[in-house]
Write a sequence for this structure.
């Protein structure tokens, strides 16, 4: 009995030690080379409703680059991490429709995490989804194309399989696109306008970390990183080809 209790205590202590020593992976993604020119979305500007929601010209936003070549909208994830669905307490992520555009255009969620698609525009939208993972297609085929009225209820999605850059688009407004990456573990992040990212609470160990950009590195740029007590730092440079 005493030996069983001692073994239980040892397991608990070891588990707590692993949790306590988890660290964050931080870094910055920068661009090498001149980004391609964005294209003016004249079809949006000419739309009688969407065009009025903008005071000037509207351009695509594929290459969000800061003053020091910081690159936004890069999905950074760990590879080979055991799959784990999001906990029920994980807050949902919102994909909004504002000014005739999807906001944000690039986002990432975990399998099992709720995605809410919102319509903040004073016009009707059609939310269409293009799947590549068969599990997601089977589970959400009936929800893959839905009309959403102005002020209508949020549309709810919950995906079961990992998939990179799942496409959301609007058949009413054909210039509207967003790309959602679904990761089967919580070790991922998306770079902000400053090109920085943080992947929180990573247990110590050796990992492959990958940076994906929808236009410049869809397959990902991989690096090796070792996480020790206190975390790790890894930076990426993505090249214009």
């Amino acid at each position: 009995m005493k030996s069983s209790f001692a073994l239980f205590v040892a397991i608990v202590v070891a588990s707590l030690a692993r949790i306590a020593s988890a660290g964050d992976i931080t870094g910055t993604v920068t661009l090498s080379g001149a980004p391609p020119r964005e294209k003016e979305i004249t079809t949006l500007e000419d739309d009688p409703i969407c065009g009025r929601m903008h005071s000037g010209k509207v351009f695509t936003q594929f290459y969000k680059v800061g003053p020091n070549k910081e690159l936004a909208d890069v999905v950074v994830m760990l590879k080979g991490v055991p799959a784990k669905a999001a906990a029920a307490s994980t807050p949902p992520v919102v994909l909004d429709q504002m000014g005739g555009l999807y906001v944000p255009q690039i986002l990432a969620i975990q399998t099992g995490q709720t995605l809410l698609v919102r319509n903040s525009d004073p016009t009707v939208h059609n939310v269409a989804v293009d799947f590549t993972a068969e599990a997601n297609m089977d589970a959400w085929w009936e929800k893959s194309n839905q009309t959403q009225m102005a002020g209508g209820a949020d549309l709810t999605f919950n995906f079961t399989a990992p998939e990179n850059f799942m496409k959301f688009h609007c058949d009413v407004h054909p210039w509207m696109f967003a790309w959602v990456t679904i990761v089967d573990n919580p070790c991922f992040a998306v770079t902000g306008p400053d090109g920085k990212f943080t992947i929180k609470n990573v247990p110590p160990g050796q990992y492959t970390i990958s940076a994906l950009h929808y236009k410049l590195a869809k397959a990902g740029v991989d690096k090796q990183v070792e996480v020790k007590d206190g975390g790790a730092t890894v930076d990426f440079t993505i090249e214009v080809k």
About this structure: The chain has a mean pLDDT of 90. Helices lie at 2-20, 42-46, 134-140.
